[in-house]
Amino acid sequence: MASDGTIQEQALDWAVRAGDPAFADWEAFTFWLEADPAHARAYDEVTAAVTDAAGLAAASGPANDDIVEEYAPALRPKRMWLGGAVAACLALVGAVWIFQGQQRDLYTVETALGETRAVTLDAGTRIELAGGTAVVFDRNDLRFARLDKGQALFTVRHDEANPFTVTVGDKQLVDIGTVFDVRHDDKGLSVAVSEGAVQFDPAGADVRVSPGEVLRASDAAYTVSKIASAQVGEWREGRLTFEAASPTEVAAQLRRATGIDYAAAPGGSGNISGSILVAPLRKDPAAIGPLLGLSVKAQGDRWVIGAN
Q1: CA–CA distance from 41 to each of 10, 28, 36, 160 (Å)?
Q2: In this structure, are residues 188 and 219 in contact, taking their beta carbons and an 8 Å threshold?
Q3: Cα–Cα dist 184/203, whole Å
Q4: Where in the chain is CATH 3.55.50.30?
Q5: Fold annotation for 238-307
Q6: Predicted confidence (pLDDT) per residue in 22-70, tens digit
Q7: How far is CA 89 from each of CA 66, 72, 76, rounded to the nearest angstrom?
Q8: Out of 11-20, 44-53, 222-231, which region has the weakest mean confidence (pLDDT)?
Q9: Class of 106-231 per CATH?
């Protein structure tokens, strides 16, 4: 699911385009609106705000009244599309947003469960996405990324004058000559470093994560513990290692790596440790049982796991 900020950007883009009298892509616009209730809400909020602004502009003099009359909006099912005057206001608002956002030109790279993908930003900076991951990049700033969900390994060319930053929720990570793995899911945020260092939340906790360390953060709390450097980003080679992990965490990582619908048994608990290769599970999802000492039950296309 896209973040609120991404949805708002999409809504603004659609509003500007739909306000153009020459706009004809109504089918795609309707599909976007109906894909998620949040899309329609965001579109209504954007258009309502800018319609108010257009109303104020129209009230300022006859010339503006003429513009509004010339581009009177046409009614379409369930929505009133914007006229040219409002579209102009939208374009102005969009320009202001872009200026305030330091002229961001954002785009999202997303992977399906079980899929991996690599993005090279420059000669020394490469981001590898695990399955079920969405990362936002900026065409105008190759030193910025935002991890919306999932897991990614960042291999970053260090530039002390222009450090690479990764935004995760309301936290920021700043590289210090670095190879680091970031995971963001329902359990919170984790940052594991194999080379260099990462400064976690420099405006708040301001914690340095060094090679062989992993920081795990949830809400306002965080912990830092040791991790073998070889384990950082090992999912790229098709291996997963668990240390005192819950069945829910194990199921989530298995889904991300394999694309198979693993789930934790209701009310399941226990600490699971072990290291496994992912490839055999694609042939036999139940093989996770003896590998990690788990119970495994098939429920349709879902594989439910629990501690023995």
Answers
A1: 12, 17, 9, 42
A2: yes
A3: 19
A4: 238-307
A5: Phage tail protein beta-alpha-beta fold (3.55.50)
A6: 777 777 777 778 777 778 777 777 776 665 555 544 454 444 443 333 3
A7: 15, 14, 21
A8: 44-53
A9: mainly beta
